[in-house]
Amino acid sequence: MIANRRFTLVARPQGLPCESDFRLTQEPAPTIGEGEFLVRNHYASIDPAIRGWLEPGGNYMEPVALGDAVRASTIGIVEQSNNPAFPLGQWVMGLNKIEFYSVGRADGFTHPIDVSAVPSPTAYLSVAGAVGLTAWFGVEEVMKPVAGQTLLVSGAAGAVGSLIGQLARRRGARVVGIAGGPEKCAKLTGRYHYDAAIDYRGKDADALGAAIAEACPDGVDFVYENVGGVCLDAALMNINTGALVVICGLISEYNSAPYGTRNVWQLLVKTATMRGYLLTQYLDKFPEGARAMADLVAQGAIVYDEHIEEGIDNALSSMLRLFEGSNQGKMILKLT
Amino acid sequence: MIANRRFTLVARPQGLPCESDFRLTQEPAPTIGEGEFLVRNHYASIDPAIRGWLEPGGNYMEPVALGDAVRASTIGIVEQSNNPAFPLGQWVMGLNKIEFYSVGRADGFTHPIDVSAVPSPTAYLSVAGAVGLTAWFGVEEVMKPVAGQTLLVSGAAGAVGSLIGQLARRRGARVVGIAGGPEKCAKLTGRYHYDAAIDYRGKDADALGAAIAEACPDGVDFVYENVGGVCLDAALMNINTGALVVICGLISEYNSAPYGTRNVWQLLVKTATMRGYLLTQYLDKFPEGARAMADLVAQGAIVYDEHIEEGIDNALSSMLRLFEGSNQGKMILKLT
Fold this sequence. Notes:
homodimer; alpha/beta; Quinone Oxidoreductase, Chain A, domain 1; Rossmann fold; 2 domains; six-stranded parallel sheet; 26% helix; 28% strand; oxidoreductase (chains A, B); ADH-like_C (chains A, B); MDR_fam (chains A, B); GroES-like_sf (chains A, B); NADP-dependent oxidoreductase (chains A, B)
């Protein structure tokens, strides 16, 4: 019998997820039916979005059921197969769960990946995967910044933020990043090619707003928001007329009572637009975006970082790193 | 000497404007220079936007200076003229002040109006003026709702809101209005052709959200927000995927400490858009919009209401009516 270790939800988190919300369970690996294949997951993508899926309402996807393993994008290798398109040994990527074994179906999200085309298979969970595509479409489809415009990014040292800055700067925009702490800020300007970096730590909305004003003397034409809360309020106070505020994430708000955004009125007086952006809005352009990002990586035109933790027993601590901001790149869990 | 009575700002309001913030002053009527003309203002439009102009920052226009009369749209008659395009006796409309006499210039905002084309000159401050144009472009350019879609309007019994409902319903949309008190709600469905009305009084955001959910069983595709605060938060909890939230006004927030909007996260999970809308965005289409609204009024296809108070000494009380919601139609001050 093959043992399937699973990171299982047993209680819905109240605020920050904690040990008692999950259990590491072990059960027999699933058996596959006609047309199906068995994937041994090797890496799971630990994303802020997972927190939303643990809520009773689920947030834009079905909630993870109590007693089921936690949903995540994974990459792995086909170990059993009743489907010739998914032969044994094939690397695949899919929206699966944080568990050793998942069943794949031809009509599901799982698809083969070419690990020879990237420096490491994990690239499919970072720059060559959803993170890279999110940044690509965020810059090239949603915002389209040009020279002379200023783009402000919160969570700028994060997986998506670090790419947004580089992609927007390639288009000629001035990019200013917000991150937590001097080390991350140094990384923004030193490694990710941001024009300026702002440390949000120790600043309330007014102080952060003043710091943005100083770093963006011509105002802000685009806000790419990964954080929300105080960051969004401070950003709103600095938008130019006709600005676009893209809400990609609100990680500061996921584990706490709702933050009240005070400066929505700025949208009115600046005739500005704020829009929610999910990668799934550009599903039809995925191949094009994936090619573009792969080319940039192959050319060495963009840098990216991965933070890989080992062991399914570190699933929770990896998730918590996202919320405390202690990850140094795209958070990935190796399911050894 | 002609006496010019003026509603003059002497202190910046803290919260709700009060008597000590203004003074009725009297000075000689201004003299006109080359190409200029003197307008005797007969009616002033009392708009929520005036409150923003009293702030030190001004909000999308220069702030009203301390010691100057309060800015407002007015209609009046040319009484002296050094400009043949503006002969004596000509009715004109312009962005002037709450004062008996204003100086007009050919290159200013002031333009002749044809009072014979409307039931009353005051129509140029309501249905045939900025209010009517705001509703027209809001429906026909910003939202463009169609049959099968649901449009939610706050401040629905107000000057703009009462027209939004009628215009959207002409396009086949289902329109649901929020207003304060049973009388206004009865007016929404009885007079302004709303499909359903919701009384916001006595409801917190959760209760109002539940009432919206009941009145909008298919969710909300468009929110036309005039009120903000609890209304906006409750509306956000009911938006459909891809919804458009139009911020036209936030009257509930103008006189108080900033309200914190809790449900901005809904924009993300619903990939929705929220945009600020000012009439000035459609300046180039004004003639077309004005013709369309004039035709609808002439056909009796839309109804509208004006609430006219008499006397410049009632300027403040008229303004306060807007914030307490005790006006019964477009608030207009007759400057007798």
